[in-house]
Structure formats: structure tokens, C-alpha cells
Amino acid sequence: MLPPGQHAQKAKFLIFESPGAILFKLGPLTVRWYGLMFVVGFFAASAMVMRLGKKWNFDTEELLNTAFWGFGGGVVGARLYYVLLNYKHFLSEPLAALMIWTGGLSIHGGLIGGIIVGLSYCRFKKLPLLVTSDLMLSAMPLAQAIGRWGNFFNSEAFGRPVGDDFPLKLFIPQESRPWEFKEQKYFQPTFLYESVYDLLLFCLLYFGLAERLRKYPGLLACIYMAGYSIGRLIIEPMRTDSLLAFGIPAAIVTSTIILIVSAVLAVVLVLYHRKRSAAQEKESLQAEQ
Asked: pTM of this prediction?
């Protein structure tokens, strides 16, 4: 038993350590934590989308169809984005590009792919694009918050080394450490930082803003994209394994672009909806006269 002083000192520290990437094996079947977190995140977010869609008197069956199409497009986009930024590695191992269960899915690529396919499905089915986007993206941070734990089990998406006295740290096995940090044991748990940030963003969008911004279709989606981009711009510089584009972390470049575009779109949408509302009020007054 530790002396009271030592016990109290030890309790100040919280260490995360992955139990391994594999959940279980059943014959030739291998179930990985990464894939499980990915699927759980999708279904959790879909359930929240359906709940809000029902409240807004939206066709929930079409919402679910849109979610599945967006999910498929997101997986393809996430992997394609990752493969393109690591093309040198996959030139020597082209079949490895298909092994998504081992990790290597970019959230930004997933967003781009999911939005493109999801909006394409909406156009095909003649669903309201802006309202559907609000419903889908209001719950997206929940899927991301859960999915980030897949990075934890894979011992990836971690930050820079920290000392033994750092209060919140992540143990990374030596085979997963960058070569320049092979002698370091503990790292910033950036996966956790982003998971918590995403969860808070979800609560803000879903419980705080969704109903208030309902009369401004599309604005909630813009706030999500801007909010998520701000989080990545804060957390990404802490990481050691960022994907690079022309020597710059790709997430920083993409997040900056998305932040600017979403801010401009938000202003345009607010002006458009206000102008439309004013026109409707004018028509209503004229009809009464």
C-alpha cells in the first residue's frame, strides 16, 4: 500500500493506454475496435437525425436513406483523401488502399465525399437541400466524437510527447511512435481533445441552435462546418502524425478553406432568408389590403 501522500500524488495523473486494435477474432473473422467505433458513431448520429427529423415533420425514411448514401460516400471520400495524401506508400502496396479496417480514414475526405453523395441523393429524390443538410450535419459531431475513439484503440492521431508529470497523457507502444520520438512513452491525447470538442459542438448544434435557426435553412450546417474547422485548427498543431500537403498539415489547409467558405455562405444565407422573409411579409400586407 502506498503512503497517503504518494497515493494522493499518483491520483492526480490520468493515463490512457489502448488494449489493442483487435476486439476479438472468430475464425477468419477479425473485428477491430476502429470499425466498431465507426459504425456505432454512424448509427448514434443517424438516430439523432431521425429524432429531429420526426420533430420537424420530415420524411424519416428518406432521411435514413440519405444517411446511408452519405455514409457510403463518406467512407469512399475518407479513404481516397487519405490514399492520395499517402500515395507514395500505396504505390508500393496498392492492395493496402482497400484495407480500411486497419485505419487511415480522413475526416475531411469523409465530409467532402459524404456531402457530395448526400446532396446528389437529395437532388435525385427532390428533397429540400438546405433543411436536409441541417438535419444531417447537426448530428455529425456526435459520430465524430465516437469515431475518434477508434484512433485511440489504433494508437494513432496522438499529439507531441509529454513528461511523466503531465496530468493527462496517452501511452503509445514503441512500434506506433514516430521515429524521432521512439524513446518517448507518453503523448498528448489529441484524439480525446477532439472527441470532447466534437461532443460539445454536437450539444450546441443539436440542443442549443437547431430549433432557433430552423427559420434559416442551411445556417446550422454552415455553423457546423465552421465550428468543426475551428476545432481542427486549434488541435491539429499539437499532433505528430498530420497528413501533409506540400509540406503543410492538410487538415489545417482544408479547415481554413472550409472555415472561410462556410462563413461566407452563412452571411449569404442570412441575407437571403431575411430578404425572402421581408418579401413574404410585404405580400401578406398587400393581400390583406
From this structure: 0.88
